[in-house]
TrEMBL record:
A GO molecular-function descriptor: ribonucleoside-diphosphate reductase activity, thioredoxin disulfide as acceptor
GO process annotations (BP): deoxyribonucleotide biosynthetic process
Name of the protein described by the UniProt record: Ribonucleotide reductase large subunit N-terminal domain-containing protein
Organism (species): viral metagenome
Pfam family, one: Ribonuc_red_lgN
All copies of domain Ribonucleotide reductase large subunit N-terminal, residue ranges: 4-39
Amino acid sequence: MRINKVIVERPQHMWMRVAIGIHGKDMEKVHETYDLMSKK
């Protein structure tokens, strides 16, 4: 995410956003996916 051409999103936020986008409200799957992606 950028504001005025400056990156303002941390990798952890991106992984969480992606996990929520994939699994929606299934928080167990969101958590599992976030953990797997953030450890790579």
